[in-house]
Amino acid sequence: MPYAPNGLWWEEAGSGDAVVLLHEGVVDSRIWARVVPLLADRFRVVAYDQRGYGRSPMWDGAYSPVDDLLGVLDAAGIERASLVGASRGGRIALSAALLAPARVTALVLVGSGLPGHRLTIDGTPEQEARWEAAEERGDAAELAEIDMEVWAPLGVDAELRAMFLENAEASNADDPATGEADAKARLAEIAVPTLVITGARDVPAINEVGEIIAGGIAGARSAVLDEADHMLPWRQPQELARLVHDFLA
Q1: Going by DSSP bridges, is the β-strand pair 221-225/10-13 parallel, antiparallel, or unpaired?
Q2: CATH architecture of the domain formed by 10-118+176-248
């Protein structure tokens, strides 16, 4: 499989207008495995592993996730693309729409984060105690178990569990990423068509972010997927792909 000059792993499927998939910060691009075939009948679909995740190398000093995204676009020979970003991937997509607007044709934000917004996720007292103990002893596997409880309360199969465990080092490390736009303060500047998708079973703080984004971007549309937690691409791939198809048509 191809690697971009910046070392990031990426793959593509299908042909047509370019759609780039950006994964959450607790898994890697495999989270899109059930969605890619459903989009590739109409679009050129690119998915990549963000720095430190999956098959891409761990960071070595400060880096820009937006520059990483643009490097993948350049490696694929894509001038402009629609960005489908989940959670951390949504943060990157929002920053790209503000910092490199000429490269972005549309945004689909799936359980998205929001640069400039302080996100507070409250675990149970028992989870918080386990988290502190696991951090003290450097137990990445236990941190991943707690992440699964918080972000995947509908349960995990063997593949999803493997993604959490294999990406636990990156997802729970001090990430030196730089160069985000203060998207919360600049949502009104985003002019591309935007669809905000949330899961009815996601943590409330994430769904509140979805409301902020949808209210701040002129003309943004919203959709809610029932029986979906934060792992929306894994829970509801067919419905998610249908929404993307309909929106980008």
Answers
A1: unpaired
A2: 3-Layer(aba) Sandwich (3.40)
